[in-house]
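To the wet lab folks,

You asked to see what we're planning to order before we commit. Fair enough. Below is the target structure as tokens, and below that is the sequence we designed to fit it. If anything looks off to you, flag it before the synthesis order goes out.
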């Protein structure tokens, strides 16, 4: 196996690349925590692992497949390993990186079901502006919904996720920054015509397959 194949993947039909290894890390972690009786941690990793499996099934470009998988690993193991409590700025890191990595993926998923235009449909400025606005809005909306979840979880289940208005406002600011960066990255991806599906190995041209 040469270096290019190690990096870009297509190792085997089942485990294609390092991204699949990350999926196994999530799902294997779920099994491990279930065996040791930590059912909450197991359930969290199982759900997040399921998200990464869904990302594989829709055949995302490698970069965005890696993005959503890395985001789920960061969120899942950050929670179960207590990194939010151990590292003061870990929460800020997550609130920037998750919208940055996942908002473009949500846009691509919506394009697959023809809710929004495919990034490759047009090449004029208003199209790119529209991609940026919608992608940023999706990321910000997801961040806001998460804050609502934290607020209600504390009230209904006795958790301690929300640390007050300052924490919530700070999280929303970081969500917004991450969403804006993610939107810019998706526009750049569309502008350079890199496509919205996983490339065929060895092919360095635009795909013929729409989102």
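Sequence we intend to order:
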């Amino acid at each position: 196996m040469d270096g290019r194949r190690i990096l870009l993947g297509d190792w085997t039909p089942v485990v294609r690349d390092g991204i699949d290894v990350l999926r196994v890390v999530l799902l294997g972690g779920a099994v491990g925590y279930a065996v040791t009786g930590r059912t909450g941690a197991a359930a969290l990793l199982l759900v997040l692992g399921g998200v990464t499996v869904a990302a594989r099934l829709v055949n995302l470009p490698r970069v965005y497949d890696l993005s959503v998988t890395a985001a789920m690993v960061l969120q899942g193991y950050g929670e179960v390993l207590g990194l939010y409590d151990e590292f003061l700025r870990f929460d800020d890191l997550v609130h920037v990186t998750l919208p940055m990595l996942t908002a473009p993926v949500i846009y691509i998923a919506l394009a697959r079901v023809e809710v929004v235009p495919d990034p490759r449909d047009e090449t004029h400025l208003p199209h790119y502006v529209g991609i940026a606005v919608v992608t940023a809005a999706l990321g910000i909306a997801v961040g806001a919904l998460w804050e609502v979840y934290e607020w209600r979880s504390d009230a209904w289940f006795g958790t301690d996720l929300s640390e007050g208005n300052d924490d919530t406002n700070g999280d929303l600011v970081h969500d917004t920054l991450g969403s804006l960066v993610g939107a810019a990255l998706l526009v750049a991806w569309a502008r350079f015509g890199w496509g919205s599906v996983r490339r065929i190995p060895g092919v360095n041209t635009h795909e013929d397959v729409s989102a």
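Structural context that might help your review: Residues 202-211 have pLDDT under 50 and may be disordered. The longest helix spans residues 125-157.

Thanks,
Computational group
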